Amino acid sequence: MARSGSLPPLPCGGGGGSSGSRRTASVGSRRPPCAPSAPGDAPPARRVPSRERRLPLPPMMNDARSAERRKDSCGSSLTSQSVERQRGELRSEERQPSAGLPRRAQGSFRGSTVHELIWSSMASSMEDRCAGCSKEKVWEIFDAFEAMDVRDVGSVRRKDFVWALGSLGARLDFQKAMNRLQLSAHFHSTAEDLSLEGFLRLAFPSASTAEMATLRRWADLRKVYLLLKPRHGFSAQRMELQRLFELLLEDEVDDVCISLGDIVQSQILTQEELRQALGDRDPTPVTFEDFCQLLKPILAQKYSVTEVSLSPEWRSGVRQRLSLAREELAPAAPVEPQSAARRPPPLPPLGPCRRSGGAKRGGARTARRPPRGWRACEALALSDIAREILA
To answer: Where on the tree of life does the source sit, at the highest rank (predicted)?
Structure first.
C-alpha cells in the first residue's frame, strides 16, 4: 500500500517486474522518472551537495591537474615536465612587462626597477627591535650614559654620576633612566668606573650575548647621531668624519665599507637626503673616500655649527670639563708632615674665676669661669682652629 503524500510507483525501463520498478521521492522533491539509457550515453551527473562544493581552482592548477590525469595513446601519464614548462613560460612573460617599449626605454625601466628594489630591501633590512627591547628604549638609556661621560672615554666615574645628579637630575628622561639602572646602589657598592657594556647590562640584565651585540650596535649608531649635535661643535673636518665612519663600521664584519642602511638607521640623514647626495650612484656600500666625497657637503650643510650655543646644558658641560682639565693638569701639592717646631703652642690653662677686691657680688670679673663638659671641648677645638688659621 502506497504511503500517503507519495506517487504510485512508475516502471523504469521497459520491464514491468519488481526488479524494474523504482520508488520515487516525495512530492516536495518532484524527482523526474528514470529515463531509459542508451548504450552509448554517459551516466547521469550526480548532484553535488552544497557542503561538498569547492571553490574553483586557478587556471594553472586546473591545467596541471588535467595534464596529470590525461593519458596518451600508450596508456602512460604525462610527466610534470610539461607543466613546469608551462609555468616557466608564464613566469618569463611576467618578467617582461615592457615588451612593447623601445630598447632604450626598456633598459631605463629595468635600471630604475633594480634601483628601487635595492632601496626597498635596504629599508626592510633595518631591525628596530630585538627580543628584549626596542631601539628607542636603548637610545634613551644611552643618552643618559652619554650625558654622564664628560671625559668622552666610554666610562662613567662616581664623581661624574654625582655631578649629573646635580646638573641633570631635574630632567624626566634622566630620572627614568636612573630609576631603571639603580646607579646609586651600584656606586655605593663599588668605586670602579662603569663601562658602556656594564651600563647596558644593568639596564637589560636578561639580554643574551647576541642581544648584547645588537644593543652595542644601536649604541654606536646613537653615538654617531649625538656627535653631530651642537654640543660637540661639528665642523665636517676629516678627523670628525673618520670617527663617524669608524662608528658606522660593524665590529663583526672585517670590511672597509659601510652600509647605507646604517646611515639611515642612525637618523643622521633621511632616505630622501641620501638619494639626493648619491645621485645616479647605486646604493651600495661606500668606502671612507666615497663617504667624504658624497656625504661631507650635506652633513656640513645640515649639522655644521656657525655660532656657539649658550644653553644651560652647554654651560654646565663646559664648566665640568674645565674643572676636570684643571685637576688633571695641575699636580697636587705634596703634603708634608707638620714638624714639632711649626706646631702652635698649647693654650695656657684658664685660671679660676676672680672678682675685684672692692666689687660687690655681680660686679666685673677679672677672669672668665672655665666652661664645663662638651662646651669646653668645643671651645678648645675652635681656639686650635683659630690659631692654625692665624699662624
So the answer is: Eukaryota
pLDDT tens-digit map of 43-85: 555 555 554 455 555 554 455 455 445 444 444 444 445 445 5
pLDDT, residue 13, reads 46
**Distance between start and end Cα atoms, the chain:** 143
Domain range spanning residue 184?
133-232+308-329
Torsion of CA 113, 119, 121, 122, to 10 degrees: 160
- Residue 256 lies inside a defined structural domain of this protein: yes
Residue 186 falls inside a structural domain? yes
Q: Is residue 146 part of a domain?
A: yes
- 245 with 162, same domain: the answer is no
Q: Phi-psi bin for 332: left (phi > 0), alpha (psi -120 to 50), beta?
A: beta
* Pick from 26-35, 36-45, 129-138, 249-258: least confident: 26-35
Q: Is the pTM higher than 0.85?
A: no
Cα gap 175→140, rounded to integer Å: 11
Encode pLDDT of 336-374 as tens digits: 655 555 666 666 665 555 554 544 555 555 555 555 555
Cell of 119: 632601496
**200 & 318 share domain:** yes
Cβ atoms of residues 354 and 366 within 8 Å: yes
68 falls within a domain: no
Let me know whether 199 and 297 are in one domain: no
**Residue 323 and residue 262 share a domain:** no
**CA atoms 239, 138, 200, 187: torsion sign:** positive
194 plus 209 within the same structural domain: yes
